[in-house]
Specification:
About 35% of the residues lie in helices and about 15% in strands. A 5-stranded parallel sheet has the order 3-2-1-4-5. The chain contains 8 helices and 5 strands; from the N terminus they run ααααβαβαββαβα. It is an alpha/beta fold. Strand 4 (about 150-155), helix 7 and strand 5 form a beta-alpha-beta unit. The chain has one domain: Vaccinia Virus protein VP39 (Rossmann fold), CATH 3.40.50.
Length: about 200
Amino acid sequence: MIQPNNKIHDLVKEKYAAIAEGKRGIGASSCCGGPTPMINIQTIGKVLDYQDADLLLAPGEANLGLGCGNPIGMADLKAGEVVLDLGSGAGFDAFLAARQVGTSGKVIGMDMTEEMVKKARDNAERLKMHNVEFRLGNIEALPVEDNLVDVVISNCVINLSPDKAAVFGEIHRVLKPGGRIVISDILRSGEIPKALQDNPAAYTG
């Protein structure tokens, strides 16, 4: 039987809470299914088109090697813009965005896992990033005001949502007119076999 939405949310929370607490993460599977030991974070990041200077930002702390692309590289962020990072995890992309929008801009990181939000806030304090904040909530129901955001970014997170129509509806709601969306994610090709639909681990693997 296909997993109900609340069950999928619980599975995702459980996995990413464990990653945030260091029980799984460096050395566990990334969202793209491969191992992400500390020694490979730099290599994976280069393959995903991050710059060397970006990859020096807190590897293993802010950068847990869980992404599947580089939305920052295509976002063309400008000073003063407001950026929303859906599924911000420990804060890596949010911090890179905060550097680009500068002190006149702002970045909001959203994550559904309390442990990840705490880790991101701790990282922000340690890195002295004052123009970024992290909020707890689901990307299907964002605690963000209407027409607030210039750019929405997300890195390998929307695929984890059981209600993608709600996610894109929320993106539309919070974006300013003329706002931009830059998403790096996994897309389905063909039908998902029933055995995978019925496998709880597949929703977070």
